[in-house]
Design a protein that fits this description.
Length: about 375
């Protein structure tokens, strides 16, 4: 098991200052493993709602929970929507004797109940798969190829990892979507998800996808919303500013886990990846997720002008504007686009991230950085 100290620290801090903490993220990313390190699963205060017996007891949740003290863990909380109003009542008790840790995969009901019933009482921590600060920079290529889901990354070989991811996708389509409250055809969503892999790292074109599938554009948008809410896809919004230029105003689409993207694209091995036409887009998406998880910006966008000038990532970090370009090249060089973006957006810094090992300046405020150095090779906090 790979330690995840960043999430452990964040979780402990949140539990110390809030009556309710929600740990959310995709299935199989390690939420339950982390919770069981804090409270053993055989403890009387641990409730797993995937267990039918426990789920039946939770029908009388107020009676079951109101006498408990200390930390109470409720796993797969989205299975019992009636739980959230009860948690609001219990969290508002004077000198509340219990703190509640709620685990769940995203669903419309979980999001709505958290916003409505627990507003002002809950702190939400979003958990993702493994990242380079946890696996080490020496595992970068394996993590990129297999993705961050622990069982995929730790598989005995590439074939086992690929098979696990294909089974994960099938289970997600056939069981998880329905259990999370998304009433969509598994076959239609599977076709959409596979087609979306062709748009990884590109701007969203819902009309084109809808026409290819023979569905309405609004239906395609609802499919994208479902994948975004379940942490499968990131919709990176464009930065709008009054520069007197024709800006791109359509979001870019990225798969949040590179291994899932590779499974849907049929990439089974490192050689398949190196030969694939989406090689550059794959590395860009992988590096983008690592940067966002590491630096946790206040806001993040991309910037593009129809004339061709663009910036892969614009981050607002504690009052500073940092631009990021991702280049899968041996030695990235200064381009006119970089100089234009630096001036147009008045950036404090522009990082050019590449998979090499040496950092060097390209110009004033512009520097080339290896991905590991940008994350902090000695190990950085995830959250």
């Amino acid at each position: 098991m790979i330690p995840r100290p960043g999430y452990e620290r964040s979780l402990q801090r949140a539990l110390g200052r809030n009556p309710v903490v929600a740990l959310v993220g995709p299935r199989q990313c390690g939420k339950t493993t982390l919770a069981r390190q804090i409270l053993p699963p055989d403890h009387l205060n641990y409730f797993d709602l995937e267990d039918p017996l426990v789920a039946g007891l939770m029908e009388n949740s107020k009676t079951l929970l109101e006498g408990l003290k200390g930390l109470v863990v409720i796993d797969e909380a989205q299975r019992e929507p009636r739980l959230f109003p009860v948690l609001r009542v219990l969290a508002d008790r004077p000198q509340n004797p219990a703190t509640f840790l709620v685990l769940g995969s995203a669903s419309p009901e979980l999001s709505r109940q958290s916003a409505e019933s627990l507003a002002g009482r809950v702190e939400i921590i979003e958990m993702q798969g493994l990242n380079l600060s946890e696996t080490g920079i020496q595992s970068a290529n394996t993590l990129w190829q297999r993705g961050g889901f622990p069982r995929s990354f730790l598989a005995g070989n590439d074939s086992d990892s690929f098979d696990w991811r294909r089974n994960f996708i099938r289970t997600f389509l056939e069981r998880d979507l329905a259990s999370l409250g998304f009433g969509m055809s598994p076959a239609a969503m599977g076709r959409f998800w596979t087609m979306l892999a062709h748009y990884h790292g590109q701007t969203w074109n819902g009309n084109e996808i809808a026409a290819s599938m023979g569905i309405a554009p609004n239906t395609a948008r609802s499919y994208l919303d479902a994948l975004e809410q379940t942490f499968m896809v990131r919709r990176l919004l464009p930065w709008h500013t009054n520069l007197g230029k024709r800006l791109v105003k359509t979001p870019k689409i990225y798969f949040r886990d590179s291994g899932v993207f590779h499974a849907l694209a049929g990439i089974r091995s490192p050689m398949d990846l190196l030969m694939h036409p989406k090689l550059g887009a794959s590395w860009e998406g992988f590096a983008l997720e690592e940067i966002l998880q590491c630096h946790q910006p206040d806001d993040a966008y991309f910037y593009a002008v129809h004339s061709g000038c663009e910036l892969d990532l614009l981050m607002f970090l504690q009052g500073r504007k940092v631009g990021v370009e991702f280049k899968r090249a041996d030695a990235p060089k200064l381009t006119r686009s970089m100089q234009t973006v630096l001036a147009d957006l008045d950036l404090d810094e522009l990082w050019v991230i590449y998979p090499g090992t040496r950092s060097y300046p390209l110009g004033e405020k512009i520097k080339v950085l290896p991905l590991g150095e940008c994350l902090g090779s000695s190990g950085v906090s995830v959250v």
